[in-house]
Write a structure and sequence with these properties.
Oligomer: single chain
Order of helices and strands: HEEEEEEEE
Helix content: 10-25%
Mean pLDDT: 83
Strand content: 35-45%
Largest sheet: 5 strands, antiparallel
Structural class: alpha+beta
Number of domains: 1
Distance between the termini: 75 Å
Low-confidence stretches: 15-25
Amino acid sequence: MNRLLAVKKFALLITVYTLCCLSVVSAGEVEIVKVKAEKQRADWVFHVTLKHGDTSWDHYADAWRVVTGDGKELATRTLHHPHIDEQPFTRSLAGVNIPADTSVVYVEAHDKVHGWSKRRYEVKLR
């Protein structure tokens, strides 16, 4: 009888572990939905809307950044918690210094499982 109970407990443990792993993988990569850049005095303010199937503290969109065409990082906005019930969501970052000779920048997004997005969002500065 004890052996049967042990087998059932082990099967339950495997099931729970599998479901947890699937929820982490099923969130997919973070998507950049929209970016708005506004000139504010000498610097810029970026408003970035992301969409991601945040599932837990182990898999959520945790940052976005502004980079130049050659990949130089100009600014990063860290996201400190999952947005499970708020999708898509927008977060802003002020005080972004863009070099005077730069007319185009890119936004990249990051999630805890997939890292930095392969797709960049092009932003033409005016």
